[in-house]
From TrEMBL:
<keyword id="KW-0560">Oxidoreductase</keyword>
<dbReference type="InterPro" id="IPR045170">
    <property type="entry name" value="MTOX"/>
</dbReference>
<dbReference type="Pfam" id="PF01266">
    <property type="entry name" value="DAO"/>
</dbReference>
<keyword id="KW-0285">Flavoprotein</keyword>
<dbReference type="InterPro" id="IPR006076">
    <property type="entry name" value="FAD-dep_OxRdtase"/>
</dbReference>
<dbReference type="GO" id="GO:0008115">
    <property type="term" value="F:sarcosine oxidase activity"/>
</dbReference>
<feature type="domain" description="FAD dependent oxidoreductase">
    <location>
        <begin position="9"/>
        <end position="386"/>
    </location>
</feature>
<keyword id="KW-0274">FAD</keyword>
<protein>
    <recommendedName>
        <fullName>sarcosine oxidasee (formaldehyde-forming)</fullName>
        <ecNumber>1.5.3.1</ecNumber>
    </recommendedName>
</protein>
<dbReference type="InterPro" id="IPR036188">
    <property type="entry name" value="FAD/NAD-bd_sf"/>
</dbReference>
<comment type="similarity">
    <text>Belongs to the MSOX/MTOX family.</text>
</comment>
Length: 421
């Protein structure tokens, strides 16, 4: 075992978007920060790689829009600091059957959060969106200005660059296999003699005053391992299920390519049907549009099939044919990319102190359930505040606690149907 004698203020484990935003924030606060990643930086085996993520403020839960709007500012601040763009604005278009509870909840959540929206019937949608989306009479559309596309791999790279610029140390090919509370042998001069020891598979040991675990789909496995030694709080099994999912790109019919671009006013969109389908304008690959299903199949993060889902494909073909008619080739996608979700039973995040023997010294942030990317900058700030001051500022975290699952496997109660079944 190689012992690093330095004491870090914060060690962040996992360099996806959440870990990279956290390391940036702690470094920016002048804290000595170490970010450890098990694979190469910017790898494609987790959840934060690829070419596009939607940013939208339309959520049926009332607690997300505020976080999205705050994040939108932080995305722009980071862009200004680094000097290039990762966030491309457009409007957001939500659609679904007018009696769909989740869509009705979204409308009321926007109203409560003072997010200006326009609710349109199928004729108005046809007019307003220049005949792009064909809705049946029983469907409505909801338009608002807070949509857009974020480029994920570029965004992770941006926050890692900014973390380094602010003094953080970043190390890849460092798989963390254990996190312990140990006597630090006086490394930690300002505090008591106990600190957090982070051990990697290749035999390195790093000391930290605080540790933030942001390991995506590996969260349940790592937390189980770390708490299995039988210390103070005993074994913790977080209800975070990895799902394997696929992103699909479809060919726009010749002559219509420009109509699907942001410059032509094409929005990011979500369809509240069965299944929930989402998409982004034609941006990253010319002449193609991304349309995919929210959800996937359970997997072990290290034993994936990487294969597309036949069920999702058949639903997508039908949806594209009914909504875009002759404008998009619906017989099959032309490009696919594999990715992973980390699902919680209520699709809400887990952001909390690990507790037990680790008390407030180890934090976990995971279970982002296929919708966390847009909020990564605020999540990084929350985690930095929790690591530095033990409390978050101007944000309510009760919906994200580990405790919500105690004696209640479903977590937060919701008065609308699940998005992922
Ligand atoms: C197909 C798809 C589409 C999505 N669309 C959207 C969208 O439109 N809008 C949106 O807001 N969100 C979206 N999301 C969700 C969003 O991408 C995720 O919520 C987010 O990327 C999660 O980031 P993370 O940092 O938690 O996880 P990850 O990116 O997986 O990062 C975790 C990192 O930890 C590392 N790690 C794991 N174990 C260890 C260990 N033991 N030691 C060291 N390192 C370790 C991993 O290698 C990985 O790099 C989508 C996700 C997918 C898959």
């Amino acid at each position: 075992m190689e012992n690093c004698n330095e004491m870090f203020d914060v060690i962040v484990v996992g360099a996806g978007i959440m870990g990279s935003c956290t390391a940036y924030q702690t470094a920016k606060h002048g804290k000595k920060t170490l970010l450890l990643e098990q694979f190469d930086f910017l790898h494609h085996r987790g959840s934060s790689h690829g070419e596009s993520r939607t940013i939208r403020a339309t959520y049926p839960e009332e607690y997300y829009p505020k976080m999205v709007l705050e994040s939108a500012k932080l995305w722009e601040e980071a862009e200004a600091e680094v000097g290039y763009k990762v966030y491309f604005k457009t409007s957001q278009f939500d659609m679904g059957p007018s009696n769909k509870k989740a869509l009705q909840a979204t409308i009321s959540s926007c109203q409560k959060n003072k997010i200006p929206i326009r609710v349109l019937d199928h004729n108005q949608v046809h007019k307003e969106l220049l005949g792009k989306f064909r809705l049946t009479e029983d469907w409505i559309g909801v338009v608002n200005e807070y949509g857009g596309v974020i480029k994920p791999t570029k965004a992770v790279s941006m926050f890692q660059t900014l973390a380094i610029k602010n003094g953080a140390r970043l190390m890849d090919n460092m798989e963390v296999v254990d996190i312990l509370k140990e006597d630090d042998g006086n490394h930690n001069e300002d505090d008591d003699a106990v600190a957090v020891l982070v051990c990697t598979r290749n035999g390195q040991r790093f000391w930290g005053k605080k540790c933030v675990v942001t390991v995506g789909a590996w969260m349940k496995k790592l937390v189980k391992k770390v708490t299995s030694a039988g210390g103070g709080g005993g074994l913790i099994t977080l209800p975070i299920q990895p799902l394997e999912t696929t992103v699909y790109y479809w060919k726009i019919k010749p002559g219509h390519e420009d109509e699907f671009k942001i410059e032509s006013g094409f929005p990011t969109f979500a369809s509240y049907g069965e299944p929930y389908i989402y998409g982004t304008p034609s941006l990253e690959f010319p002449g193609m549009i991304k349309i995919a299903v929210h959800g996937g199949r359970p997997c072990e993060p290290d034993e994936r099939t990487w294969a597309a889902s036949a069920v999702a494909l058949s639903a997508l073909r039908e949806w594209i044919q009914s909504k875009f008619g002759d404008l998009v080739e619906s017989s099959g996608p032309v490009l696919t990319q594999s990715c992973m979700y980390s699902m919680t039973p209520d699709e809400d995040f887990v952001i909390d102190f690990l507790g037990g023997e680790f008390g407030k010294d180890v934090l976990v942030a995971g279970g982002f359930s296929g919708h966390g990317f847009k909020m990564a900058p605020i999540i990084g700030r929350i985690l930095a505040d929790l690591a530095i001051d033990n409390q978050a500022k101007n944000v309510e975290l009760k919906h994200f606690s580990i405790k919500r699952f105690e004696g209640n496997s479903k977590g937060n109660a919701k008065d609308f149907d699940d998005q992922v079944n």
